[in-house]
Design goal:
The chain is of the alpha/beta class. About 35% of the residues lie in helices and about 25% in strands. It has a twelve-stranded mixed beta sheet, with helices on both faces. The structure holds zinc ion.
């Protein structure tokens, strides 16, 4: 163990001992069997229901209205699926009634909001316990790459918490230096900021870097063009689908493995890849995840909509929250030996559906792997501007094979209809969203135009 690692461990033990206890708990839980973890989750879930019934007005009223009592769950766990789903709109409309009224918890409440990539932002509240688990989960996931506390951590990230989150005290900066943490703002990436970040990484081949998929991909292109190799310990990506071409390119540039993760601002960490990179292990201490189709649970292996109950944020309980993502739960059985079941997340979130004249709705994902093969493309966005037109905006990084544009035209004619014309535009930059999520396919056609 290096001196830095010992110093970081000692610092966290003094300043964030409760977070360190969470990390220790996570380290132990991962090796329990899936059955044992499921049994424990039922207890954590029971505690959330009981707490919500006692301290959270929204749930107290709801439970009375539907005739549910948390004791019912203890004797008959299946009744959980009779509870109504919580939509994003319901969270917006009932915000104040979803906040805990427990007096002891009032002084540790932190207000936060989502980036609102797919609509209005959602305000919610977190408490100290949640924050301890949030930080612990972050470290816990990094440990899966062999990283240890005190090893450098770079973040190419944006600020999602409001208020003074962007401003840092001298103490915070000193602490960050001691534990080996450094940042670059993903919302304002310029050649200068990327150069600065690259220079910081050059000296730290044992660093792990966290980033959004599209920003890390862009940064990797910058590093490749810059010509001086940078080696990293591992890259962790979040918030956007990680396609195979992203993974291969980032892994190649930094000569390290890429770990994909799945989380949301309002629920925290949901799942992350282990070193086998075959699906994402569910963070069972943080989330109870259901997979539903037509409102009913589907067996493992079948695709459905994800519904999430957070288990660590009593300040603002989200029970059966519709996160508007979906995919397949596979259960445990990963060769790594962890009891945490594995999840495959469908990649629909940043890819819209196209509306067509006579073929219904067509998922835009079919075009996504084709565009990067056209040449040196830094970024792109596919926009359906009308029922008859697709515009592909490209930020060029070098040669683009325009002779192959006709392949894209043909693919669109086959998938969307002969009426559809494809136009290509070169642009300097593409709009970014507040969470840094890049929308690959956007449809501007309203459903009532159908
Ligand atoms: Zn595994």
């Amino acid at each position: 163990m290096s001196i830095r690692q010992m110093a970081a461990g000692a610092l966290y033990a003094v300043t964030r001992s409760s977070m360190m206890s969470c990390l220790e708990e996570l380290d132990q839980l991962q090796w329990l069997s899936e059955d044992e973890l499921t049994a424990r989750q039922q207890r954590w879930l029971g505690r959330v229901l009981e707490y919500a019934n006692t301290y959270v007005p929204y749930y107290r009223d709801l439970f009375i209205e539907i005739g549910f009592h948390p004791n019912d769950f203890v004797t008959q766990p299946d009744c959980f699926t009779d509870l109504p789903l919580l939509t994003k709109d319901a969270v917006r409309q009932n915000h104040d009634r979803l906040v805990t009224t427990e007096p002891a918890r009032q002084d540790s409440l932190i207000k936060a909001k989502t980036g609102g990539t797919t609509g209005e932002p959602i305000w919610f509240v977190q408490d100290r316990v949640y924050d301890d688990y949030r930080v612990a989960h972050n470290f816990f996931q990094m440990e899966w790459s062999g990283w240890r506390l005190g090893q450098p951590e770079g973040r190419l990230w944006g600020h999602v918490l409001t208020g003074d989150a962007g401003k840092k005290s001298i103490v915070t900066r000193l602490k960050e230096r001691l534990v080996g943490r450094f940042h670059s703002n993903a919302f304002h990436m310029t050649p200068e900021s990327m150069e600065q970040f690259a220079a910081q990484l050059e000296k730290r081949p044992d660093a792990v870097v966290w980033s959004y998929v599209s920003t890390m991909y862009r940064f990797a292109q910058f590093v490749q063009e810059r010509g001086r190799p940078i080696r990293l310990h591992a890259v962790y990506t979040a918030a956007e689908p990680l396609y195979e071409y992203h993974r291969e390119f980032i892994a190649g540039v930094f000569d390290c493995p890429v770990f994909n993760s799945y989380s949301s601002v309002e629920t925290g960490d949901i799942a992350c890849e282990c070193d086998r990179h075959d699906g994402l292990h569910i963070m069972m201490r943080n989330c109870y995840l259901e997979v539903l189709r037509d409102g009913r649970p589907v067996p493992d292996g079948q695709e459905g909509e994800f519904v999430i109950t957070n288990l660590t944020n009593l300040a603002f309980p989200l029970i059966r929250y519709q996160i508007e993502d979906g995919g397949v739960r596979r259960g445990a059985g990963c060769p790594c030996g962890r009891g945490l079941p594995v999840l495959e997340v469908a990649e629909g979130r940043v890819i819209d559906f196209f509306k067509t004249r006579d073929r219904g709705r067509v998922w835009g994902a079919f075009l996504v792997p084709m565009i990067p093969t056209l040449g040196q493309i830094k970024q792109y966005q596919i926009v359906q501007t009308s029922l008859d037109q697709i515009v592909i905006r490209i930020v060029r990084g070098g040669f683009v094979d325009e002779a192959r544009f006709s392949e894209i035209q043909r693919a669109c004619a086959v998938a969307l209809g002969e009426n559809v014309q494809v136009a290509f535009e070169y642009v300097d930059r593409l709009p970014s969203t507040p969470t840094g999520k890049h929308r690959y396919v956007v449809s501007e056609v309203e459903p009532d135009h159908l």
